[in-house]
Amino acid sequence: MPPMGGDLSRLRQLNALTVIKTLRGAEAATLSALADRTGLSRPSTKEVIDELSAMGWVEEIPPASGTMGRPARRYRFRADGGHLMGLDIGAYHIRAALADLDGNVLAETRRPAHPDAPLEDRLAAIEQAAAACLGLSGLTMTDLWTVAVGTTGLVNAEGRVIMSASIPAWRDLDLEGLLGKMFPCRVLVENDSRLAALAETRRGVARDARDVVFLHIGRRMGTGLIIDGRLHRGFGAAAGEIVMLPEAGWRDGPEDLNNSAIVPEGLPPEDAAGFTLAAARDGDPTAQDAVARFADKLAIGTAAAVLLLDPEIVVLGGGFSRSADVLLPPLRSRLERVCLRMPKLSGSMLGDECVVLGAIDYAIEHLDQLFFAPDAPALRPPVRPATSSMGPNPA
Amino acid sequence: MPPMGGDLSRLRQLNALTVIKTLRGAEAATLSALADRTGLSRPSTKEVIDELSAMGWVEEIPPASGTMGRPARRYRFRADGGHLMGLDIGAYHIRAALADLDGNVLAETRRPAHPDAPLEDRLAAIEQAAAACLGLSGLTMTDLWTVAVGTTGLVNAEGRVIMSASIPAWRDLDLEGLLGKMFPCRVLVENDSRLAALAETRRGVARDARDVVFLHIGRRMGTGLIIDGRLHRGFGAAAGEIVMLPEAGWRDGPEDLNNSAIVPEGLPPEDAAGFTLAAARDGDPTAQDAVARFADKLAIGTAAAVLLLDPEIVVLGGGFSRSADVLLPPLRSRLERVCLRMPKLSGSMLGDECVVLGAIDYAIEHLDQLFFAPDAPALRPPVRPATSSMGPNPA
Q1: CA of B103: how far to CAs of A78, B16, B98, B100, B206, in Å?
Q2: C-alpha dihedral sign at B239, B245, B250, B252
Q3: What are phi and psi of B151, to 5 degrees?
Q4: Looking at A284-370, which runs of residues are DSSP E strands?
Q5: Which residues of A touch B1 (CB under 8 A)?
Q6: Domain B205-349 superfamily per CATH
Q7: To the nearest whole angstrom, how far is the Cα of B11 from the nearest Cα of chain A?
Q8: Which of B38, B247, B338 would best serve as a mutation to test chain A binding (most A beta carbons within 10 A)?
Q9: Where does A8-77 sit in CATH, by number?
Q10: C or N: which end of chain B has fewer Cβ atoms within 10 Å?
Q11: Are B227 and A311 in contact (CB under 8 A)?
Q12: Which of A36, A231, A298, A340 is best to mutate for the B interface (most B CBs within 10 A)?
């Protein structure tokens, strides 16, 4: 705790943070509206807005044309003051998305990948995806403030992938360090299911929920947990791995859908589960049996999470979220048999973009921490943050 | 957020809270030591100590006799300024413990109960246990500042017992309201496994751990979760109920131990499991088979919790904690087969007192919130807090 003296500048900073928080991701607002929403006096609000405008965080926007009389001045957060990139590195794909400081997506790229591709090939593909995404917006690497990456596997707090069942090349790999050499800014690496869970609470069906179980269901099955409004990593960053519980049967869970008797020979393996789910929707009894077997397994792991955590909402996300209409009813009936309190059950609306959007939201959290947290250093103008001393980035 | 002006008194309060926090539950300290530990200047520390002494929260203690020269003055928190009571209301027992504001236990009582006792009888027994506990210290009901109660069942945020498998009379019962009529102070009611988990992090083997899975194992099986340093209740206060997962088999888990072939006829049912556990410790193969079957079930529910939450430590508490030496090795070997990261595994040292101690710690948290939280009203002298307007207490 700081000593009592000299803390008026500190209070001014806290007031500035309140104003910034009110403006982030919102419409432009007048001084009176800002004073209302923040509880600050109008003179204090004016003082803060002047300071933030001088720094470059806030700008006045021109009045709407055709307005009669003298309209009140309106101010907005300069979300275009910097750029972030989200990357989703899966076994079979690489996605990149470029966003402004409010998380609005400006450009996206996607390219296929092979699970067994050698490390150099995968890194080259990542660089291509990122460069193409920047090119779409006429930007370059040096415009990036932060890159956040979601990938499959156990990722520790330093961004090292301890193990990954889906990408053999990811094994005890300092991915944050490797990508730090590719980008001239801070790179953050986190487990993909966790980032997808974050996206659901920031912009998806779990928006503003404090306790969320996110089911990341597709070729692989995983979970991401939001507890008391925060991403839950656990003591050793190994939280969310209910897939390992033998009694839930999640490790080979999708095989029920991949190998159902109705899947035609020659169908690419990545389309098999979708074929079974579509046939079940159309009433095929063999497909419905396969869905029932899959739902049995899905329900065991989900019930364990619901009984332990009592979340407000369970979100079915990942590749199978397109078939939430087929999967949620049997999941619901099974959960109702054992759960003391039923959470809300929803299918994700973010589809295949859940991880890359979560990566962007994670990058925003990081920047908010650097610039706008109550315990951040004194407020400073919007300039790309120096790469952390933790990372090996040559910048 | 408050406006900028007039916040020096606010800063003085924050400084006072820092000093109080440093003194709580600790040895008496000199001004220099306090200034060191808090980071405040020595004049600020002196000012705060004078204010707290005038209020009655802090007192100077006499120098140790036989000290040479002029010893520095030392100060301590006046833990004896108020009194708390913890109650543990189980199906078969009622425990009461009286404590000072630092949670030091001053007196304890325990009496048996019957699961099927009518509500009035159980309430009368609670009042007897509490009165006897106060009598041991020469105190009366009016000396109590807060009473916290742990009981079996699903307890909602308002202290209503929604359901209880062990106490039939506890069914959709406003227990907080009923006990509020018994005590002339604020009464708080919470699930017993959660309070026991809290006690482990405040004074037990999980002291200071941020993520804890507490196994409450005995005649009944339950869990209490501490996540990121806080008691986890869940959205509808139904967290921790992995006992309901059929695949874990916890609901009849203890029957493996109660009904093993070696239990002599005529042994009271409450001693059967202990008999089997003791025989297993002594090498009886039939008893060891029963323990192995029980450990299989215990491990499924525990693995679900560990895989989902990745806790720092798992504590085996409750009645069976006396047999932790018998139960932990088979639990450990089963968890090692499936868990990605093994947490620390420990037996509780709090024994049968875990719930009543947790209730005391819960009452302390409540008082800290009233008196010493950063967002509490202005610092005030130690006087029994008024009963909350939420409770129906007639005071």
Answers
A1: 51, 21, 9, 5, 17
A2: positive
A3: -145, 165
A4: 313-317, 344-347
A5: 14-15, 18, 38-40
A6: ATPase, nucleotide binding domain (3.30.420.40)
A7: 6
A8: B247
A9: 1.10.10.10
A10: C
A11: no
A12: A340
Classify residue A328 by burial, with Cβ atoms within 10 Å: 0-12, 13-18, 19+: middle
Specify the domain boundaries for CATH 1.10.10.10 within chain A: 8-77
| pLDDT in 10s for each residue of chain B, 395 residues | 333 334 557 778 888 888 998 998 888 999 999 999 988 999 999 999 999 999 999 999 987 666 677 778 999 999 999 999 999 999 999 999 999 999 999 999 999 999 999 999 999 999 999 999 999 999 999 999 999 999 999 999 999 999 888 899 998 999 999 999 999 999 999 999 999 999 999 999 999 899 999 999 998 899 999 999 999 999 999 999 999 999 999 999 899 999 999 999 989 888 899 999 999 999 999 999 999 999 999 999 999 999 999 999 999 999 999 999 999 999 999 999 999 999 999 999 999 999 999 999 999 999 988 888 877 777 888 888 877 544 333 33
| Among A4, A42, A51, A163, the residue to mutate for chain B (most B Cβ within 10 A) | A4
Q: How far is A280 from chain B (nearest CA, A)?
A: 27
CB pairs under 8 A between A and B: 160
Reading the block at residue A260, the tokens are 């159902």
In what helix (H) or strand (E) does residue B147 lie, and over which residues does it extend? Answer: strand B144-151
* For residue A255, pLDDT beyond 80: yes
**Quick one: A82-196+354-372 is in which CATH superfamily?**
ATPase, nucleotide binding domain (3.30.420.40)
Question: How near does any CA of chain B get to the CA of A249, in Å?
Answer: 11
pLDDT at A391 over 50: no
* Cβ within 8 Å, pair A245-B11: no
Domain with CATH 3.30.420.40 in chain A: 82-196+354-372, 209-349
Name the fold adopted by A209-349.
Nucleotidyltransferase; domain 5 (3.30.420)
* CATH class for the region spanning B81-196+354-372: alpha beta
